[in-house]
Design a protein that fits this description.
Layout lengths: L1 H16 L12 E2 L2 H11 L6 E5 L5 H9 L2 E6 L2 H10 L6 E5 L7 H5 L6 E5 L5 H9 L7 E7 H7 L8 H7 L2 E9 L4 E2 L6 E8 L10 H11 L7 H9 L3 H11 L12 H14 L1
Helix pairs in contact: 9-10, 9-12, 10-11, 11-12
Length: 282
């Protein structure tokens, strides 16, 4: 509790010193629990040879831990004022680079230099969680691992198993293995959000589970499959692709998938089989 109070005091002091307040529009909730900071760092398994891209560093509380344990930290902060504070606070820290930009506009390869082996650590605003995850997982140069603070329900969706899969879980599990490494109460933030969070770890595969140059085509099929919630796959695919069921059934047969199954029951490998069957059909 003392550590939580200390971080809360420091957070309020920094906000007061720089005449700032948390911006709801940017989803700013500052982490004030030292124990959670340690869990995040432990999940990243940082060493002095690691390069870390931190997304949404805010006031730099987590940044302090990252620069202590990693060899190099690149912090990407959208908020102009917060980016300025970070540059001021860490002016003497040579291993830290602060980039004032929208992470979705930053190509990791452009900021990493010759060292393309990196990890991502982020306390993400909830409204951009999915976009940021996909941004890194689909980047030409992918991270080895992502350690993310996300909404608890989003973590549940991402780690779902066949029977409860969604387009989000497919889009993440195509590229890596996700797991929840810690639960985080809303009271661990200032100001406290309306929902609890979770620390999500995504260990990225060397190659995606479905090797194809047409990743857009793969997601077109998956998106169509999930277009009609809880309906039989033959119906949702026909609806999503705007074709007749008579065109869909032979493709499902070729992929070895019962037309009466639902999208949420399919494994990643089965989505791959279905995608290849459509490619052959066309």
């Amino acid at each position: 509790m003392m550590q939580t109070e200390s971080l809360l005091f420091r957070t309020k002091k920094l906000l007061t010193t720089y005449d700032l307040h948390a911006k709801k529009g940017l989803g700013q909730n500052f982490l004030i629990d030292g124990g959670i900071l340690k869990k995040i760092a432990a999940a990243a398994e940082l060493t002095s040879t690691d390069t870390v891209i931190e997304v949404g560093p805010g006031l730099g509380v987590l940044t302090e831990t990252l620069v202590e344990q990693a060899g190099k930290v690149i912090a990407i902060e959208l908020d102009d004022n917060l980016a300025g504070i970070l540059k001021n606070r860490f002016a003497d820290v040579k291993k830290l680079t602060v980039i004032n930009d929208d992470v979705l506009k930053v190509n990791p390869a452009d900021i990493l230099g010759i060292d393309t082996n990196y990890k991502v650590v982020a306390n993400l605003p909830y409204y951009i969680t999915s976009a940021v995850i996909r941004h890194f997982l689909e980047a030409p140069v992918k991270p080895a691992v992502l350690i993310l603070m996300v909404q608890k329900e989003v973590a549940k969706q991402i780690t779902a198993q066949p029977g409860e899969m969604s387009l989000l879980s497919v889009s993440v599990q195509l590229y890596g293995k996700p797991m929840v490494v810690g639960k985080v109460s809303a009271h661990c933030f200032y100001p406290a959000p309306n929902v609890d969070s979770a620390i999500l770890k995504i260990s990225v595969y060397p190659h995606s589970k479905i090797e194809t140059a047409d990743i857009t085509g793969f997601f077109d099929i998956a998106r169509a499959g999930f277009s009609a919630n809880r309906k039989q796959l033959v119906n949702s695919l026909a609806n999503g692709l705007k074709v007749s069921k008579t065109e869909i059934i032979p493709v499902l047969d070729q992929a070895g998938i019962d037309p009466q199954r639902r999208a949420e029951t399919l494994t990643i490998d089965e989505w791959g089989n279905l995608f290849r069957a459509f490619k052959e059909k066309r």
